[in-house]
Amino acid sequence: MKKDEHKMKNGNFLDACQNALDGIIYAITTQSNIKKQLVIAVIVMLVSLFFDLNKAEFLCLMFTVVLIIVAEMINTAIETVVDLYTDLYHPKAKIAKDVGAGAVVITAINAIIVAYFLFFEKISTIGLKMIDEIVNSPVHLAFVSILLTVIVIVTLKAAATKKHKFVKENFMPSGQTAVAFAGLTIIWLTTRNVVIFTISLVLALVVAINRYENRKRSKLEIVTGAFVGVMVVVLIYGLALIYLGTTFSGITEFLSNIKI
Question: What's the pTM value of the predicted model, to 2 decimals?
Fold first, then answer.
Protein backbone atom coordinates (compact mmCIF):
# COMPACT_ATOMS: atom_id res chain seq x y z
CA MET A 1 0.00 0.00 0.00
CA LYS A 2 2.78 2.39 0.89
CA LYS A 3 4.53 1.49 -2.35
CA ASP A 4 1.44 2.43 -4.34
CA GLU A 5 1.09 5.68 -2.42
CA HIS A 6 4.72 6.47 -3.16
CA LYS A 7 4.07 6.03 -6.88
CA MET A 8 1.23 8.56 -6.67
CA LYS A 9 3.59 11.23 -5.36
CA ASN A 10 6.18 13.23 -7.29
CA GLY A 11 9.66 12.10 -6.33
CA ASN A 12 11.31 15.31 -7.52
CA PHE A 13 10.81 18.33 -9.72
CA LEU A 14 11.51 16.41 -12.93
CA ASP A 15 8.89 13.80 -12.01
CA ALA A 16 6.40 16.60 -11.37
CA CYS A 17 7.12 18.11 -14.78
CA GLN A 18 6.81 14.72 -16.49
CA ASN A 19 3.47 14.01 -14.77
CA ALA A 20 2.16 17.43 -15.75
CA LEU A 21 3.25 16.81 -19.33
CA ASP A 22 1.52 13.43 -19.30
CA GLY A 23 -1.66 15.13 -18.13
CA ILE A 24 -1.49 17.69 -20.93
CA ILE A 25 -0.83 15.00 -23.54
CA TYR A 26 -3.73 12.90 -22.22
CA ALA A 27 -6.12 15.83 -22.35
CA ILE A 28 -5.09 16.78 -25.88
CA THR A 29 -5.19 13.25 -27.28
CA THR A 30 -8.43 12.07 -25.64
CA GLN A 31 -10.66 15.14 -25.31
CA SER A 32 -12.26 16.31 -28.55
CA ASN A 33 -13.27 19.68 -27.07
CA ILE A 34 -9.67 20.50 -26.19
CA LYS A 35 -8.55 19.51 -29.70
CA LYS A 36 -11.09 21.89 -31.20
CA GLN A 37 -10.13 24.66 -28.79
CA LEU A 38 -6.46 24.28 -29.66
CA VAL A 39 -7.22 24.50 -33.38
CA ILE A 40 -9.30 27.63 -32.79
CA ALA A 41 -6.53 29.06 -30.58
CA VAL A 42 -3.93 28.56 -33.32
CA ILE A 43 -6.21 30.21 -35.90
CA VAL A 44 -6.93 33.15 -33.59
CA MET A 45 -3.24 33.66 -32.87
CA LEU A 46 -2.38 33.61 -36.57
CA VAL A 47 -5.21 36.02 -37.39
CA SER A 48 -4.13 38.35 -34.57
CA LEU A 49 -0.86 38.93 -36.43
CA PHE A 50 -2.79 40.93 -39.04
CA PHE A 51 -4.56 43.21 -36.55
CA ASP A 52 -1.54 45.04 -35.13
CA LEU A 53 -2.38 44.30 -31.49
CA ASN A 54 -0.29 46.05 -28.85
CA LYS A 55 1.36 44.12 -26.00
CA ALA A 56 -1.54 44.58 -23.57
CA GLU A 57 -4.12 43.43 -26.15
CA PHE A 58 -2.04 40.40 -27.14
CA LEU A 59 -1.49 39.40 -23.50
CA CYS A 60 -5.22 39.72 -22.87
CA LEU A 61 -5.93 37.50 -25.88
CA MET A 62 -3.30 34.97 -24.79
CA PHE A 63 -4.65 34.83 -21.24
CA THR A 64 -8.19 34.29 -22.54
CA VAL A 65 -7.14 31.40 -24.77
CA VAL A 66 -5.13 29.75 -21.98
CA LEU A 67 -8.02 30.23 -19.54
CA ILE A 68 -10.43 28.32 -21.78
CA ILE A 69 -8.04 25.38 -22.21
CA VAL A 70 -7.24 25.26 -18.48
CA ALA A 71 -10.95 25.30 -17.61
CA GLU A 72 -11.58 22.43 -20.03
CA MET A 73 -8.70 20.43 -18.50
CA ILE A 74 -10.03 21.02 -14.98
CA ASN A 75 -13.47 19.92 -16.14
CA THR A 76 -11.90 16.75 -17.58
CA ALA A 77 -10.13 16.07 -14.28
CA ILE A 78 -13.37 16.50 -12.33
CA GLU A 79 -15.26 14.16 -14.63
CA THR A 80 -12.49 11.55 -14.40
CA VAL A 81 -12.45 11.63 -10.59
CA VAL A 82 -16.25 11.42 -10.38
CA ASP A 83 -16.33 8.47 -12.80
CA LEU A 84 -13.61 6.79 -10.75
CA TYR A 85 -15.78 6.74 -7.63
CA THR A 86 -19.16 6.01 -9.18
CA ASP A 87 -20.60 4.86 -12.49
CA LEU A 88 -24.16 5.31 -11.24
CA TYR A 89 -26.24 8.45 -11.21
CA HIS A 90 -25.79 10.49 -8.05
CA PRO A 91 -27.01 14.04 -7.41
CA LYS A 92 -23.65 15.18 -6.04
CA ALA A 93 -21.79 13.63 -8.97
CA LYS A 94 -24.10 15.53 -11.30
CA ILE A 95 -23.43 18.76 -9.41
CA ALA A 96 -19.67 18.28 -9.70
CA LYS A 97 -19.85 17.70 -13.45
CA ASP A 98 -22.32 20.54 -14.01
CA VAL A 99 -20.16 23.01 -12.08
CA GLY A 100 -17.10 21.99 -14.10
CA ALA A 101 -19.02 22.40 -17.36
CA GLY A 102 -20.35 25.75 -16.14
CA ALA A 103 -16.80 26.98 -15.60
CA VAL A 104 -15.99 26.18 -19.23
CA VAL A 105 -19.10 28.05 -20.41
CA ILE A 106 -18.14 31.13 -18.37
CA THR A 107 -14.64 31.19 -19.88
CA ALA A 108 -16.18 30.84 -23.36
CA ILE A 109 -18.48 33.82 -22.72
CA ASN A 110 -15.48 35.77 -21.46
CA ALA A 111 -13.61 34.88 -24.66
CA ILE A 112 -16.47 36.22 -26.80
CA ILE A 113 -16.45 39.50 -24.88
CA VAL A 114 -12.67 39.84 -25.21
CA ALA A 115 -12.80 39.03 -28.94
CA TYR A 116 -15.50 41.65 -29.43
CA PHE A 117 -13.43 44.43 -27.85
CA LEU A 118 -10.21 43.34 -29.58
CA PHE A 119 -11.42 42.60 -33.09
CA PHE A 120 -14.89 44.04 -33.77
CA GLU A 121 -13.82 47.64 -34.37
CA LYS A 122 -10.88 46.57 -36.55
CA ILE A 123 -13.00 44.10 -38.54
CA SER A 124 -15.80 46.64 -39.04
CA THR A 125 -13.25 49.18 -40.28
CA ILE A 126 -11.81 46.68 -42.76
CA GLY A 127 -15.33 45.73 -43.86
CA LEU A 128 -16.28 49.36 -44.51
CA LYS A 129 -13.11 49.89 -46.54
CA MET A 130 -13.93 46.85 -48.67
CA ILE A 131 -17.50 48.11 -49.23
CA ASP A 132 -16.16 51.54 -50.15
CA GLU A 133 -13.82 50.03 -52.75
CA ILE A 134 -16.58 47.88 -54.26
CA VAL A 135 -19.18 50.66 -54.37
CA ASN A 136 -16.77 53.20 -55.83
CA SER A 137 -15.43 50.79 -58.45
CA PRO A 138 -17.70 50.11 -61.45
CA VAL A 139 -15.77 46.92 -62.22
CA HIS A 140 -16.19 45.52 -58.70
CA LEU A 141 -19.84 46.49 -58.58
CA ALA A 142 -20.51 44.81 -61.91
CA PHE A 143 -18.63 41.67 -60.85
CA VAL A 144 -20.56 41.44 -57.57
CA SER A 145 -23.86 41.89 -59.43
CA ILE A 146 -23.10 39.07 -61.88
CA LEU A 147 -21.85 36.83 -59.07
CA LEU A 148 -24.99 37.40 -57.00
CA THR A 149 -27.14 36.69 -60.04
CA VAL A 150 -25.45 33.32 -60.44
CA ILE A 151 -25.85 32.60 -56.72
CA VAL A 152 -29.57 33.45 -56.83
CA ILE A 153 -30.12 31.16 -59.83
CA VAL A 154 -28.21 28.28 -58.22
CA THR A 155 -30.09 28.78 -54.95
CA LEU A 156 -33.46 28.71 -56.69
CA LYS A 157 -32.55 25.54 -58.54
CA ALA A 158 -31.25 23.89 -55.40
CA ALA A 159 -34.47 24.77 -53.59
CA ALA A 160 -36.54 22.96 -56.22
CA THR A 161 -36.42 19.42 -54.86
CA LYS A 162 -38.24 16.37 -56.21
CA LYS A 163 -41.25 17.40 -54.15
CA HIS A 164 -41.53 20.47 -56.36
CA LYS A 165 -41.11 18.73 -59.69
CA PHE A 166 -43.73 20.89 -61.42
CA VAL A 167 -41.99 24.07 -60.30
CA LYS A 168 -38.61 22.70 -61.33
CA GLU A 169 -39.80 21.77 -64.83
CA ASN A 170 -41.86 24.87 -65.60
CA PHE A 171 -40.87 27.86 -63.52
CA MET A 172 -37.11 27.59 -62.95
CA PRO A 173 -35.36 30.66 -64.37
CA SER A 174 -32.87 30.21 -67.20
CA GLY A 175 -29.39 30.79 -65.78
CA GLN A 176 -27.78 31.87 -69.05
CA THR A 177 -30.63 34.27 -69.77
CA ALA A 178 -30.37 35.71 -66.26
CA VAL A 179 -26.65 36.38 -66.64
CA ALA A 180 -27.14 37.87 -70.13
CA PHE A 181 -29.81 40.31 -68.96
CA ALA A 182 -27.85 41.10 -65.81
CA GLY A 183 -24.97 42.17 -68.04
CA LEU A 184 -27.38 44.14 -70.20
CA THR A 185 -28.73 45.98 -67.16
CA ILE A 186 -25.22 46.80 -65.95
CA ILE A 187 -24.43 48.34 -69.34
CA TRP A 188 -27.69 50.30 -69.23
CA LEU A 189 -26.86 51.69 -65.80
CA THR A 190 -23.23 52.53 -66.44
CA THR A 191 -23.10 53.81 -70.02
CA ARG A 192 -24.74 56.58 -72.05
CA ASN A 193 -23.77 55.05 -75.37
CA VAL A 194 -26.95 53.96 -77.15
CA VAL A 195 -24.99 51.92 -79.70
CA ILE A 196 -23.30 49.79 -77.04
CA PHE A 197 -26.60 49.25 -75.25
CA THR A 198 -28.35 48.23 -78.49
CA ILE A 199 -25.63 45.72 -79.34
CA SER A 200 -25.81 44.32 -75.82
CA LEU A 201 -29.60 44.03 -76.05
CA VAL A 202 -29.31 42.09 -79.31
CA LEU A 203 -26.77 39.71 -77.76
CA ALA A 204 -28.97 39.15 -74.69
CA LEU A 205 -31.97 38.40 -76.93
CA VAL A 206 -29.86 35.99 -78.99
CA VAL A 207 -29.02 34.07 -75.82
CA ALA A 208 -32.68 33.95 -74.80
CA ILE A 209 -33.90 32.89 -78.23
CA ASN A 210 -31.18 30.23 -78.47
CA ARG A 211 -32.25 28.73 -75.14
CA TYR A 212 -35.86 28.56 -76.38
CA GLU A 213 -35.18 27.22 -79.89
CA ASN A 214 -32.96 24.46 -78.53
CA ARG A 215 -35.87 23.50 -76.26
CA LYS A 216 -33.66 23.87 -73.25
CA ARG A 217 -36.02 26.32 -71.57
CA SER A 218 -39.68 27.34 -71.90
CA LYS A 219 -40.83 30.90 -72.58
CA LEU A 220 -41.80 31.31 -68.95
CA GLU A 221 -38.38 30.14 -67.74
CA ILE A 222 -36.62 32.54 -70.11
CA VAL A 223 -38.79 35.47 -69.01
CA THR A 224 -38.25 34.55 -65.37
CA GLY A 225 -34.49 34.35 -65.90
CA ALA A 226 -34.41 37.75 -67.56
CA PHE A 227 -36.49 39.23 -64.74
CA VAL A 228 -34.20 37.76 -62.06
CA GLY A 229 -31.07 39.07 -63.80
CA VAL A 230 -32.48 42.58 -64.15
CA MET A 231 -33.85 42.75 -60.60
CA VAL A 232 -30.65 41.53 -58.92
CA VAL A 233 -28.56 44.17 -60.70
CA VAL A 234 -31.08 46.94 -60.00
CA LEU A 235 -31.15 45.92 -56.34
CA ILE A 236 -27.35 45.91 -56.00
CA TYR A 237 -26.90 49.25 -57.76
CA GLY A 238 -29.79 50.69 -55.76
CA LEU A 239 -28.18 49.62 -52.49
CA ALA A 240 -24.87 51.10 -53.65
CA LEU A 241 -26.62 54.36 -54.44
CA ILE A 242 -28.28 54.43 -51.03
CA TYR A 243 -24.99 53.60 -49.33
CA LEU A 244 -23.20 56.44 -51.08
CA GLY A 245 -26.04 58.83 -50.49
CA THR A 246 -26.22 58.16 -46.75
CA THR A 247 -22.52 57.73 -46.06
CA PHE A 248 -20.57 59.84 -48.51
CA SER A 249 -20.76 63.24 -50.09
CA GLY A 250 -19.85 61.71 -53.47
CA ILE A 251 -23.42 60.87 -54.48
CA THR A 252 -23.37 63.56 -57.19
CA GLU A 253 -20.31 61.99 -58.78
CA PHE A 254 -21.89 58.55 -58.61
CA LEU A 255 -25.10 59.78 -60.23
CA SER A 256 -23.14 61.47 -63.00
CA ASN A 257 -21.79 58.06 -64.04
CA ILE A 258 -25.17 56.33 -64.01
CA LYS A 259 -28.09 56.79 -66.30
CA ILE A 260 -31.34 55.04 -65.37
Answer: 0.48
